[in-house]
From TrEMBL:
<dbReference type="GO" id="GO:0009244">
    <property type="term" value="P:lipopolysaccharide core region biosynthetic process"/>
</dbReference>
<keyword id="KW-0808">Transferase</keyword>
<dbReference type="Pfam" id="PF01075">
    <property type="entry name" value="Glyco_transf_9"/>
</dbReference>
<dbReference type="InterPro" id="IPR051199">
    <property type="entry name" value="LPS_LOS_Heptosyltrfase"/>
</dbReference>
<protein>
    <recommendedName>
        <fullName>Glycosyltransferase 2-like domain-containing protein</fullName>
    </recommendedName>
</protein>
<dbReference type="InterPro" id="IPR002201">
    <property type="entry name" value="Glyco_trans_9"/>
</dbReference>
<keyword id="KW-0328">Glycosyltransferase</keyword>
<dbReference type="GO" id="GO:0005829">
    <property type="term" value="C:cytosol"/>
</dbReference>
<dbReference type="GO" id="GO:0008713">
    <property type="term" value="F:ADP-heptose-lipopolysaccharide heptosyltransferase activity"/>
</dbReference>
Amino acid sequence: DSVDKLRSCLEALRNWVPDVTVVIQENEDSAKEIIEEFKMSVCIHSTSTTSARWEYGLTQINASWVLLVRSNEIITGQLRKSIAEKIKVNVDNPCQYLLKSTIVFLKKRLKYSLDWYDCKPSCLTYLPKNVVTIQNLKKIKWAFEGELIRYNEDTISDCANTVIKKADERAGYLAKVLTNSNPYLLFIAGLSSSIKIFSQAYFSKKGFKEGFEGIVFSICDAHAELLGYLRYYELYIREKKKLRDDLSVLNKILVIKLRDIGDNILCTPLISNLKYHLPETSISILTWSYSKAVFENNPHIDQLFDLAKDNPFKNIKKVLSQLNSSNFDLVICTHSGKIASNLLLKIKTKYRINNYYRGRNKSYNLITPESDYYRSSIERDLDCLRSLGLESFDKKTQLFLSDSEVLSAKNNLITKGINPNKKKVLVHPTAAVPIREWPLTRFNKLIQKLNNNDN
């Protein structure tokens, strides 16, 4: 339906407006085809708000008089004539002449102007060459003859889609003006604001006189406001959208991995992926002393901290002091165990990730998703990467051995009668829990097959 409305809008403009520029988002392929069909200019801009698109469009054209309209609006013949006469008059200062709109909602022409409360009116704008923004322009209510007809949502299903879109837009606005992160206070503020918006639409704008359409619109406009507050909390508080949009603020990251040797090895893809996406960021590791060697010589790691597993509380205050003096911007706890979670809570940092385990997801302010199926330790660690809006480029584990370690291993193999130049396979047929075990019968067949290979 939006495509049909765009076609009607361009059809009404092309015979009397000499230069039409349409601002759309990158993924609007159907709109691109229609614009090309009408041989009009197209600009790609990431924002979804109308006012931001208008602002961007003004930077792409060279004209003093600009008509700013939406793709779902039709300018009638009488209004065209009135606008054409207006632009012949000399104007001294930049300004906007607001165009009063007639609203069509749920396929019915409304008597009263029920439009989304944050919806900016279309306008005829005068901008001298030294002015390139419509912000803070003087707004004039001019008595143009004719009608600007805005075809809003046709069905309640369309309304639901618009409510979600409006909620995202309002969340973006709230992110600029709010600092509160308490979900209960935000809900109360959103509820209060939505009641106010409903009252304005239904009573002040006389929505009650429009019958069914007035009820639906007033509820939808209020609902978009409440959802906007909730969406703000979801995007900007739980998922830290501002951080995800600008990860360059992460100068120092600490990864807490208080696990055994095997889990530490499986954590190396997370470390290499962090360094791949954030090459200028310093990455440190906190792990058990006895498994610290797994991370040594790793070029992606800048600093190592350790605790003794047999007595972790012996030096915990000293280690905590070292961590706090390091001023980490982000701390990632890949396993939310008791000691690790308590440390995470005490480390001074702006952002915390505590990987999700049922009943143990504590001390975080940047959420990781809970998976609904069994996944490997590598994938669960990489969920921390995905919480930052990043995807993995490589999932291979890595160990970085020194020359002396490699030589020692070769000598050890030789003393045991093993040719170090041959390919070697280490078989470990058990696991901590049965679900991770491969059947012994299959191990047996694999070993027999490997023994038959001379290489």
